[in-house]
Amino acid sequence: MEQAVNTYITEHSLCxxxxxxxxxxxxxxxxxxxxxxxxxxxxxIGVAHCNFKMRGDTSDQEVQLVERRAREYGFSFFxxxxxxxxxxxxxxxxxxxxxxxxxxxxxxQTMEEHDFNLLAVAHHQDDQIETVLLNIMRGTGLFGLQxxxxxxxxxxxxxxxxxxxxxxxxxKQHLIEYSEDExxxxxxxxxxxxxxxxxxxxxxxxxxxxxxxxxxIQIWQKxxxxxxxxxxxxxxxxxxxxxNFIVLDTDKIEESLRDLVVFEWLRPYGFNYTQVTxxxxxIGNNHSGRLFFSKKxxxxxxRKRLILAPRSSEEKQHLIINQDDKYINLExxxxxxxLMTKHPDSYPEDINxxxxxAQKINYPLEIRKWEEGDTFMPFGMMGKSQKLKKYFRNxxxxxxxxxSQWLLISEEKICWxxxxxxxxxxxxxxxxxxxxxxxxxxx
Length: 443
Description:
Blueprint: H1 2-11, E1 20-24, H2 29-41, E2 44-51, H3 57-73, E3 76-81, H4 84-91, H5 95-114, E4 118-120, H6 125-138, E5 151-152, E6 155-156, H7 164-173, H8 190-205, H9 209-238, E7 239-242, E8 245-249, H10 258-266, H11 273-284, E9 291-293, E10 297-302, E11 305-310, E12 318-321, E13 327-330, E14 333-340, E15 353-357, E16 365-369, E17 375-376, E18 386-387, H12 388-394, H13 399-404, E19 406-410, E20 413-417, E21 421-422, E22 435-442
Helix pairs in contact: 2-7, 4-5, 6-8, 6-9, 10-11
């Protein structure tokens, strides 16, 4: 294994003996094996461990395990603690996303403070396959089929060639102590479901599945490099920079390839394929002024052109919804609009689904964040008005939750505090003939 890692490092120019490498070690078998390998290969290593304080005494024991082994190898050791659950709630994001943000932010700070120039992580071949399958489920182009790169910016993955079986065998051979995270055996998260349920089922039918997937990923990586060259040529001919804006003239792109070119252009800016199809449809219908947002960028349609610009931190989002819009993508989720002509047998008690009287709504609708002074008539309160500020206070919303709350507006009246409560004025009653069903899918 030592020789295989050394060869992989050399082939992909991951690092040299002159580099100062910060190694992210969780205490699990993968990172503990990588730490042992780096010790055997005599690299300049510092070990970084994050305690996410989510598994009680086990988390504390992992800190002790990683520190003890790092000291035995003569590596410098760095650790920190996070209130991960509280951070996730404050930011209104998932636990995994919160943990990832916290650890990589701290890794960067540690690297800068202690003069490390590379960060090594213990992703392996099985992780690579899971990542590609996740990308497929989320929706991806050819570039998402590449999976993780051996080296990207300052992050290196020296074990990306190795299978989990190889790593387990090496750990047994060298009696490497490690901690087993019991949550990895639970299929609550999508990646764990792929690892624990999906792949084993596929392997029963296709025993060579992992080997074939690894071969496919290698082919897709080479195909992506070829496509990237062709896309760059096409984009250089069609786009130009005007101040802080990037303008793409879509009319000069072959119609059958337009969605692909636009998607691969906008993908690094955080836009997804559903948004791209809406953009293409808008410019095809000469709808200028349609706005689309990702977390850090915004795009507007202008005749046959798409104009991309960064979002300012003070910018308030206002999206217009026309009657023919079926899907609206926001930075943190998607809205689906369904017009129903019959009352369903029952209405689910799901705060992420709203049923509104379609005849009480006037298009175009608007989606925006809440503003000081906003009021609405909460459903079930017999037409009494309430300030959103008071509603948020009663619901114990923190500042982050208030700032990220979306509203659906019809003629300056709030129809729905999205994912929370509808307005009494738009409720369904015995005279309702047409029902607008809106589904909020949080990403």
